[in-house]
Amino acid sequence: MSKAIGKLMGAGGAPTSMYGSENEVLKYLGNYDTSNYDNTLNNLTSYASNASEQLSNMGNYNFSVNASDEARNRAEQATYQSYVDKLQPQFSAQMSDLHTSLANKGIAVGSEAYMRAMGGLNASHNSALNEAARQSVLAGQEAYSNSLNDQINTATFANNAQSDYINQLLNALQNSYSGYDVAMDKYNIQNKGETRIGQNQASNTSAQIAEGNRVIDNAIKFVR
């Protein structure tokens, strides 16, 4: 009875329903289409899941590179052979000229002077061949380094292309809501509204009871 009297007297007027703005936001969120975001996010998570199963041997990302020993060997052999092809005619001509020169000087084949002259020429030839070998090693090292740099550049390009593609997808998702985001926003609005409504209902009940009791007390005093 006290509650009814209090209500008639106007006590407990705090609102006990959702605000219009809250209902409008809930209505908007309820109609918000998150399918594009959710589908894209699902594709990304599927890609990440598949990629994680292949971390030891991924096809899309390069975690190591190897230079080419074949390229080094080809460069060494080609360089050395190029030097030899140029040197051999020179060696033959020098040997023939030396034989002729020694014979013209009357130096006999097998003599000490002859052997000394031939030894000097052979030493010169060996030095030229050693230089050819050194140059071939340098060429092989350069070819090996170039192949390594090529592999690094290729791997870096591929990895950056993959990262750029994923970043483009992530950027496309900016300022978009997922189904989870919408659900959490609706929950927060609903929860705050329900909490406020519950508090208002409790406040209204207390105010109504207090007002009813006051009216009864005044009525009793008037009767007396």
What tags apply to this protein structure?
single chain, 2 domains
N→C terminal distance: 21 Å
Helical fraction: over 70%
The main sheet comes to: none
Over the alpha carbons, how many angstroms does the gyration radius reach? 48 Å
The amount of beta strand, in percent, is under 5%
Structural class: mainly alpha
Low-confidence stretches: 1-9
What best-fitting shape do the alpha-carbon axes yield?
rod-shaped
Order of helices and strands: HHHHHH
Number of domains: 2
What is the average of the pLDDT values? Answer: 78
- Number-wise, the strands total 0
Q: How many DSSP H or I helices?
A: 6
Describe the SSE topology:
Elements: H1 2-8, H2 20-31, H3 35-52, H4 69-104, H5 112-172, H6 179-223
Helix pairs in contact: 1-6, 2-6, 4-5
What does this structure look like?
This protein folds into two domains: 81 residues; 111 residues. α1 packs across α6, α2 runs antiparallel to α6 and α4 runs antiparallel to α5. The protein starts with a helix and ends with a helix. It is rod-shaped and about 165 Å long. The chain is an all-alpha fold. It contains six helices and no strands.
Question: Short summary of the structure?
Answer:
The chain is mostly helical and 224 residues long.
